[in-house]
Write a structure and sequence with these properties.
This protein has 7 helices and 9 strands, in the order βββββαααββββαααα. The chain has a domain at 26-160. 41% of the residues lie in helices and 14% in strands. The two termini are 25 Å apart.
Length: 212
Amino acid sequence: MGVRVTPDLPQFMDGALLIPRFDRRVGSTGEIRLGVESVYSISGVVDSTRESLAHHQVLIELQKCCTNFSEEALEYFRRDILNLALGNRDNHGRNTAILKDTDGSIRLAPVFDFGPSYLDARAIVRVIHWDAERGGSMDWGEVLANLETRFADVDREPPNLVQITEELRRLGNELTALPQIMCDCGVDESIIEARRDDIDKLVRTLSTVAAP
């Protein structure tokens, strides 16, 4: 679906998909360890039980540190769309990070800790929300308008909202194939059916979103 993942395929072991480490490389000069910092860390959140984050705050912090913020903003939206589509509610600030590479570039690390957490018996809920989020449903036009306002509030240039709008529409069209992709990848039929309504809702709302 276009999100950034590790170059090597995950390994299936003991009922879990294990993602190869992306924070180190082994070359002719030995091991190189890359810097990794969580979203909580770049946002200055010390105690996540007492402090909360919103998506616009994360994007503002990403703008401050990422080398190519335009691309990272698109990547951030892609990931949250898939969170909503596939029931990955476990979106706290330790499950997203930035990666600091040897060339000085800083960008979002590949996706990790991604799964259908709606199935978890602990009843995990989303903890990072959009301003226009109401029970997991969004008016994406309102999301973008609020984002523009939030950036203006801190005297920062917002991401390219026309570009984001085009990406949201593209994702809306591509999500129509997601149930079949899940089937082709061996996802349990019960999960595919459980996610179908939310996927259909996202297809309807994303395909018609307009830039503010």
